[in-house]
Design a protein that fits this description.
By secondary structure, this protein is an all-alpha fold. The protein has 2 helices and no strands. The protein has helices spanning 9-33, 40-64.
Length: 69
Amino acid sequence: MPGCPEITPEETAELKRLYAALPEAIAQAAEALRTEQLAGPALVTFLEGDAQVDTIIQRIRQLTEQPAG
């Protein structure tokens, strides 16, 4: 498809792993939000999950980004 980035088989496999890991990271962060008070271990769990989500999304964007020009 014109204008679409070329994705190697290795990158395709990585994208599949990333998309599989994304819901788990989101669920980890969401679980922490279900506590009465977001402090202590619940806060750590939330921050870890949130960081994982951010890292996964950034990598997906890197893999699927169109080259400039």
